[in-house]
């Protein structure tokens, strides 16, 4: 609406300025109103896109991050992603299905000594050697980082923690809870467990690969994608309120017809980030 108002006043000011049919007083008023609207529009746009905090910026440029992590930054845009999630010092964070710990390490750096990160590993993943290797790397790293705990349990138990959380994070794995890779899991029960794990006002963030609208249910297994609308429906059914969506990882050029590991699109998939809140 601000954008539309701005266009109207631009037209009005131009007519006044060039038609020579208005007094200087009216010209001044028109210009002042236009300036105000432009300022409000810019303010609205700035507030819609969260800016990375100093703690997030420092975590991303930390020289101790392994090259296997930093090489992925171009595609994962960690500063913008963590800023949208609202990660901050002192947070208690769950990194669900943490993999090799890419986000675990970033979260730990931002959360600091007063925060804590739980790198949660569903026990169903132990059958995959590459995942076991990544888990071992996270465990080794956590030994020297006391604000990190690596936990193992079944899919639903892995979403339970010894303290209430500020943030529950799941990246590129929500769809796997629907398929044979990590499930199928009772998603209503899973999201209720996440709800219970969070503090009132806590944040639930789901990052995943976009599936085409109207995709069949098995798209989670065949292409490893999921429709954002499916996630919203399931998460909101558990009592969460929708806070917003980030397009920072969007790729309009993705045809959504190839699996996420297909060389034609791997690392460049169209991805969504949805943010939900547990009501206070």
UniProtKB/TrEMBL annotation:
Top-level taxon of the source organism: Bacteria
Alphabetized UniProt keyword annotations: Methyltransferase, Signal, Transferase
Swiss-Prot/TrEMBL GO biological process terms: methylation
Record flagged with keyword Methyltransferase: yes
Source organism of the structure: Dokdonella soli
Protein name, entry field: Class I SAM-dependent methyltransferase
Lineage: Bacteria, Pseudomonadati, Pseudomonadota, Gammaproteobacteria, Lysobacterales
Secretion signal, residue range per the UniProt entry: 1-48
Gene Ontology molecular function terms on file: methyltransferase activity
């Amino acid at each position: 609406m601000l954008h539309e108002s701005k266009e109207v006043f631009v037209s009005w000011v131009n007519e006044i300025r060039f038609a020579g049919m208005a007094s200087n007083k009216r010209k001044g008023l028109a210009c002042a109103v236009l300036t105000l609207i432009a300022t409000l529009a810019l303010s609205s746009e700035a507030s819609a896109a969260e800016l990375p905090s100093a703690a997030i910026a420092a975590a991303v440029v930390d020289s101790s991050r392994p090259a296997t992590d930093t090489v992925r930054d171009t595609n994962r845009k960690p500063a913008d992603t963590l800023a949208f999630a609202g990660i901050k010092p002192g947070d208690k964070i769950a990194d669900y299905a943490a993999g090799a710990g890419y986000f675990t390490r970033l979260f730990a750096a931002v959360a600091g000594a007063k925060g804590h990160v739980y790198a949660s590993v569903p026990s169903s993943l132990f059958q995959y050697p590459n995942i076991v290797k990544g888990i071992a790397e996270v465990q080794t790293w956590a030994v020297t980082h006391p604000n990190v705990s690596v936990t193992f349990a079944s899919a639903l138990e892995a979403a339970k923690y010894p303290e209430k959380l500020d943030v529950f994070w799941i990246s590129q794995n929500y769809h796997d809870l629907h398929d044979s890779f990590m499930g199928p899991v009772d998603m209503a029960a899973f999201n209720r467990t996440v709800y219970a794990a969070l503090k009132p006002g806590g944040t639930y963030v789901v990052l995943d690969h976009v599936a085409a609208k109207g995709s069949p249910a098995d798209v989670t297994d065949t292409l490893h994608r999921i429709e954002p609308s499916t996630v919203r429906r399931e998460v909101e059914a558990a009592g969460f309120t929708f806070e917003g969506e980030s397009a920072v990882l969007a790729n309009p050029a993705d045809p959504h017809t190839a699996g996420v590991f297909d060389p034609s699109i791997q690392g460049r998939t169209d991805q969504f980030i949805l943010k939900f809140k547990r009501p206070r």
